[in-house]
Design goal:
CATH class: Alpha Beta
Shape: elongated
CATH architecture: Roll
Number of domains: 1
Structural class: alpha+beta
């Protein structure tokens, strides 16, 4: 009887050890934090503050811009944003989704980036979409670990090279 009880206890413990609870769903506070991080990033971009732009990124984050190499880690991301903000522009982010579970969350949305030509107040605008992936740290703070975006329209193709002028042959 004792061995049957011990076997049943071991079987029960083994079964319980294999059970995992479902990840905790996101809360409204989690989604609000994602909106706040988006807003702070846009405000920092508009102010030309690279350090403000960096505030929402985890130390091991990666940024995957279109048509450029990936930037990994704080130093490469800081260098990317420094280069991209050398000319002041205006960024607007419109978050459309925030979902996830446990310690991971993602957001998607639309963006509009407008960079005025020198000496003017309006210029060409780029509209596109973005995806951010967040991880909740041991301290409970959400940080961006992956960031990518793409424009809705392909960049304009370069003008074809000018044809050489026809030359007349002398007779």
């Amino acid at each position: 009887m004792r061995s049957a009880t011990a076997s049943l206890l071991l079987l029960t413990l083994a079964a319980l050890g294999g059970c995992k609870s479902a990840p905790v769903p996101l809360t409204d506070a989690d989604r609000a934090t994602a909106r706040q991080i988006d807003s702070a990033f846009a405000a920092a971009t508009n102010a030309g503050s690279v350090e403000g732009m960096m505030a929402g990124y985890a130390a091991d984050a990666m940024v995957m811009p279109p048509n450029m190499p990936m930037a990994r880690g704080a130093d490469q991301i800081r260098s990317l944003w420094t280069g991209m903000t050398s000319q002041k522009g205006t960024l607007q982010l419109i978050q459309e989704t925030a979902d996830g579970a446990g310690d991971f969350m993602y957001t998607t949305g639309r963006y509009r980036y407008q960079m005025p030509p020198a000496g003017t107040s309006a210029g060409a605008a780029e509209d596109g979409k973005y995806l951010l992936v967040y991880r909740r740290g041991a301290d409970g703070k959400w940080m961006v670990v992956a960031d990518t975006w793409s424009p809705n329209a392909a960049p304009a193709a370069p003008a074809p090279p000018a044809k050489p002028a026809a030359t007349r042959r002398a007779r």
